[in-house]
Amino acid sequence: MKQEVLKHFDVPWLPLTALVLFVVCFAAYTYWTYRKANRPHFESVSRIPLEDPSIKTNDLQGKIS
Amino acid sequence: MSASLDGKPRNGRLESFTYDDGIVKLFVIATLIWGVVALFLGVTIAFQMADWHVNLGLPWTTFGRLRPLHTNAAIFAFCGNAIFAGIYYSHQRLLKARLFSDTLSKIHFWGWQLIIVSAALTLPFGITTGKEYAELEWPIDIAITLIWVVFAVNFFGTIIRRRERHIYVAIWFYIATILTVAVLHIVNSLEIPVTLTKSYSLYAGVQDALVQWWYGHNAVAFFLTTPFLGLMYYFVPKAANRPVYSYRLSIIHFWSLVFIYIWAGPHHLLYTTLPEWAQTLGMVFSVMLWMPSWGGMINGLMTLRGVWDKVRTEPSLRFMAAALTFYGMSTFEGPLLSIKSVNAIAHFTDWIPGHVHSGTIGWNYMLIAGILFFLVPKLWNTELYSKKLAHQQFWFVTIGLVLYIISMWVAGITQSMMWRAMDDAGNLIYPNFVETVIKITPMYWIRAIGGTLVLTSFIMMMYNFWKTIKNGKKEAPVVYEAYALDSSSIEHDASAHRKLEGWPMIFSVLSLIAILVGSAIEIIPSLMADKYVVKIDAIKPYTALELYGRDVYIKEGCYLCHSQTVRPMAHEAVRYGKVSNAAEFVYDHPFQWGSKRTGPDLARVGGKYPNMWHYKHFFDPREVTAGSLMPQYRWLFDSKIDYKTLPKKLEVMRKLGVPYSQEEIDNSVADARAQAKMIAEDLAQSGVPMKIAEMDVVALIAYIQRIGVDYGSIPEEE
User: Fold this and answer.
1) How far is residue B715's CA from residue B718's CA, in Å, rounded to a whole number?
2) Burial class (CB within 10 angstroms; exposed 0-12, middle 13-18, buried 19+) of B582
3) By C-alpha distance, which of B138, B86, B73 is closest to B112?
C-alpha cells in the first residue's frame, strides 16, 4: 500500500537530489578513506580502545574529574 | 611523557581521574532483569499463538495487550539498558574521562527504569496509541524525550571534558544514535491528548503510515543497529585484544549506514516518477547497501583473526562471533525482503517476525551476552563463575533461535502460497482463511519451543552472573592519569576529515544533516500527502459510537493480527474485495493498516457478517470459525461504554481536521446511544438482553461493521 501511494508522488527532484548527494558523498569519503597517506593515521587510531591510561598508584595529588 | 596519535611526544599537563563504573553496574543489572522479563513475555505470546487457551481469558494477559509489552520490553528495556551500560563503559575509556555528571547518570538510570515500569503498568491495561513500537501514551513520550536529553547532555558533556582528541569510530555510531532517535521519537509521537491516558496521532491514514514506518524502520536501524555497531567496534577489539581489522572500512560503514539506512535504501525510487536511469542507479545502490552491512560484519569477524582459538574457549568472543554472523545474515535478509516480488510473498506472514528475531536474538541478544561476559567479571573484580555453563547457554540460544527462524520461514512461505493459490477458473483454492492458519499451527509450537530454549539460555546466564557477582571483591576505584586536552595534542598538519574527527560538535551537526537529508525523502512526501491523496466525498467520518469502537479495537491490539489494507493482487481482491485506496483512510488517526495477518484482513469486513456473528465471535471465536486461534474477548460484554468521553474525542478529531460539526459534537452522546440501541435491538432478536447496548462490545461491532463500507459502496467504474 505504501508503495502504491508513493507512486503518485510527483516530486522526482526529491529522491533524485538525495540520490545524487549520496553518490557524491559516497565517492568522496571512499576516496578520502582509502588515500594512501591516511593509512598510518588510521592504524594508530584503531588502537585507541586498547590504550588504557596509566594507573596512578599513589594517593591523589591533582584534581580528580 | 607519552606519544600523541601522530607519534610526537606529549608534554602537556597530567590529570588524575576515575571512571564511574557504578552506573555501568546498575545498567548491567537492569539489562539482566528486563531481559528475562522481555523473553518471558515473548515465550508467553508464542504459546498464545499456538494455543488460544494460554490467553487465560483475562484482558491484561491477552495477546493483543502483551505483544506490545514484549516488543517494548525487548527493544527499550532489555536492549536500551544494555546500550546505556555499554556506551557508559566504553565512552569513558575511549575519551579517558569520567562521565560528565554523576547526578545526570543517576537521573538517566532511574528515569529510564521509571519509563519502563510505566510501560508495564499501561500497556497491559490497553493504554496505547496503537502505533507499533511507539505504543506508549503521551505522558510517557514526554518522559522519554526528557530522559533522552539528560543522556545526550551527559554524553556530549563527557566529550567536551575528554582527554583524547580523536573521536573513535564507536563514538560516531553513538552520536548518530542519540541524534536520530531524538528526531524519530519526537516527529512520530506528535499527538493531541484527549485525556491523560488517551491521545490521537497528529497524522492520518497514508501520512501516518509513512511517518510511522519511517520511524519503525529507523527504530530498528538506530536503536538496534547503530549503537550495537558502536559497541561492537569497542568491545570486539577489546575482548580480542587486537585493533579492529580495518578502520577505513568502519568509516565507510558509518557514513553509508547514516546516509542510506535512514532513507530505507533507494527502493523508494522504484515507485516514484523518476526517470529510468535514476531508478536503475537506485537499485544498484540498494544492492550496495549490503556492502556496508557486510563490511561491518567482515570487519568484526576479521578482527578475531589470530584469536579463533579463544573463540572456542572465551564465552565473550564466542557470543560476539555468533552475533556478527547473525548480523550478516539478517542484514542480507532485510534488503532481500524489501525487493517488491519477495515482499509480495513475505509481507503480512510469519517470515517477518522470523527475520526480526534473527536480528534481535541473533545480533542483539548474542552481542549483549558477549559484552556482559566481558564486563561482569571486570566490573566486579572476579573470574566468571562457569565457562562451561556459558558454553551450554550458547548452544541453548543458538538451537532455540534456529528453530525459531526455520519454523517462521516455513510458516510464512507456506501460508503465503496458500493465500495466493488459485485454480484455472480464478477461484481461491483455500478460500477459508482459517485453513491456512491451521496448516501452520505446528510451526507455532516449534517457535514456542525455540523461544523457551532462548529463555532458558538467558536464565542460565543470569545464574552464572549471580554466582560471579557473589564472588566479587570490593576494591577502591582505580585512579588513572592522562594528559589534558590542550594545544600539545593538536595535529597542525592534519587533513580536513582528521580535524573533523576532533571537532565532535561539527561532526555531530554533519551527521545530523546526513540523517535529515535521508529523512526528508520520506517526510516531505508525507507532508504533501494532502496534495496527492484525492478526497472522495463518499468517505465520511466515523460516527461517535464507531469512533469509540475504534478506540476499543486499538486498546485490544486487534491491529497486531489483522491488517486493514487490500493489496493490488488478484488473490487479495478475490479473497477480501476491492483494492484499498489512499483516500479511504483520511480520517484514520492513527492508521490501522497493520503489519501481520494472523487473522484475515478487515479492510472490507463491514457489512460482511450480521451483528450476531460478531457478537458470537467476540464471545468465543470458535463458535463461528472452527479452528480459530483468536482469544475470547468476554470482558467486552461486561465493560461499559464511557459515553461522557465522546464530545472530547470528537472535538480533538475536529482539531486534527476531521470535519465534525458542532452539532455532531454536542449530540455525540445521544447519537451514540441511539446507534448502540439499534445494534442491541438487532441482537435482541436472537435473545440477547437489551442491556448489551451499554457495553463495549456493541461499540466494537459498530466500528467493525463500518470498516471499508464507504469506499466499498462506490461502484468499480468510478
Assistant:
1) 6
2) buried
3) B73
Surface of A (15-34) touching B: CB under 8 A = 15-16, 18-19, 21-23, 25-26, 29-30, 32-34
Q: Residue B230's closest chain A neighbor by CA?
A: A49
31-60 in chain A: CB under 8 A from chain B: 32-34, 37-38, 41-50, 52-56, 60
Question: Is residue B718 very low, low, confident or very high in pLDDT (cuts 50, 70, 90)?
Answer: very low
- Does the beta carbon of B92 lie under 8 angstroms from any beta carbon of chain A? no
**CB–CB contact A18 B263 (8 Å):** yes
Q: What is the pLDDT of residue B495?
A: 62
Block residue for cell numbers 514456542: B448
CB contact under 8 A, B163 and A53: yes
Q: Looking at chain B, which residues constitute the CATH 1.10.760.10 domain(s)?
A: 544-712
Measure the N-to-C terminal CA separation of chain B; round to a whole number of Å: 82
User: Do B282 and A5 lie within an 8 Å CB cutoff?
Assistant: no
- Shortest distance, CA B469 to any CA of chain A (angstroms): 24
Best to test chain A binding among B158, B271, B580 (most A CBs inside 10 Å): B271
Counting Cβ atoms within 10 Å, is residue B205 exposed (0-12), middle (13-18) or buried (19+)? buried
Tell me the shortest Cα–Cα distance from A28 to chain B, in angstroms: 10
Query: In this complex, which of A5, A25, A54 lies closest to B255 when CB atoms are compared?
Result: A25
Question: Are B221 and B518 a contacting pair, CB within 8 Å?
Answer: no
Looking up cell 542519540 gives B178
Chain A contact set for B16 (CB, 8 A): 56, 60-64
| CB of B374 closer than 8 Å to CB of B237 | no
Q: Do A65 and B97 touch (CB under 8 A)?
A: yes
Q: Are B178 and B152 in contact, with CB atoms under 8 Å apart?
A: yes
State the Cα–Cα distance between residues B336 and B347, nearest whole angstrom: 12
Q: Give strand pairing partners of A54.
A: B481
Q: Give per-residue pLDDT as tens, B531-567.
A: 777 788 899 999 999 999 999 999 999 999 999 999 8
CB contact under 8 A, A11 and B528: yes
- How many whole angstroms separate alpha carbon B135 and alpha carbon B557? 10
Residue B1 in this model has a pLDDT that exceeds 50: no
Contact A56 B479 (CB under 8 A): yes
> CA A39 to CA A42: how far, in whole Å?
5
B476 and chain A in contact, CB less than 8 A: no
Q: Which amino acid is at A52?
A: D
* CA–CA distance, B384 with B466 (Å, rounded to integer): 10
Q: For chain B, where do the domains classified as CATH 1.20.120 start and end?
A: 19-166
- For residue B499, the model assigns a pLDDT of 62
pLDDT the model gives residue B453? 98
Residues, chain B: 718
Question: What is the distance in angstroms between the Cα of A61 and the nearest Cα belonging to chain B?
Answer: 8
Which pLDDT tens digit goes with each residue over B451-484?
999 999 999 999 999 999 999 988 888 899 998 8
Which CATH code is given to the segment(s) B544-712? 1.10.760.10
Q: Is the pLDDT of residue B333 over 80?
A: yes
Out of A12, A46, A62, the one facing B274 most closely (by C-beta) is: A12
CATH number of B19-166: 1.20.120
Element (H, E) at B158: helix B138-160
Q: What is the pLDDT of residue A62?
A: 47
A55: its cell numbers: 594507573
Residue B674: which pLDDT band, with cuts at 50, 70 and 90? very high
Dihedral of CA B632/B634/B635/B639: which sign?
positive
